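Subject: for your reference before the review

Hello V.,

The reviewers asked for a structural picture of the protein, and I figured it would be easier to keep everything in one thread rather than splitting it across files. Below is the amino acid sequence we used in the manuscript, unchanged from the supplementary table.
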Amino acid sequence: MVCEFSGGVVVASRVVRGPWEQGLSALAGHPVRVARTPDPGDLYAYPATVVSEASIARLSREVGREVDGRRFRLLLTVAGCEPHEEDAWQGQEIRVGGAVLGVNGPVDRCAATTRHPDTGERDLDTLRLIKDYRGRAADGSICFGMLAGVRRPGRVRVGDPVEPL
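And here is what came back from the structure prediction:
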């Protein structure tokens, strides 16, 4: 099987059948199939994502209540930044613990962020909220957080410093 993803990325894959198909299809409201690529790196050129606690706090102020950052499924959440400071790291490298990441660009958000991370229920119109205070990117996407690629692998632990290079 061949899957085509946003951005025109075409990847060889195979459908992985299992009991999750029925639950995911019910949640999505249409048939869902899970596909697996031969090598996990085939699909994600930017396996790391970064957001600051301040960005999540800024969104929380827009909402009028605390927003659980888990709904964005970002790999690294950093402290000690201004809201959306991570956006300014685009095109730069950052050191996170023993690893060095290259910050590529913004994460185009999807409707999955509108669902509560524990229940899966739609409970917050994150896309509208982000769009209302941040606007849309030139391509029309609604962005929150940054994509990053691994330039130098290394151990990363909770509490490790994050520094732009």
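For the response letter, the relevant points are probably these. Residues 115 and 122 are 4 Å apart (CA to CA). The mean pLDDT is 88.

Happy to draft the paragraph if you're swamped.

O.
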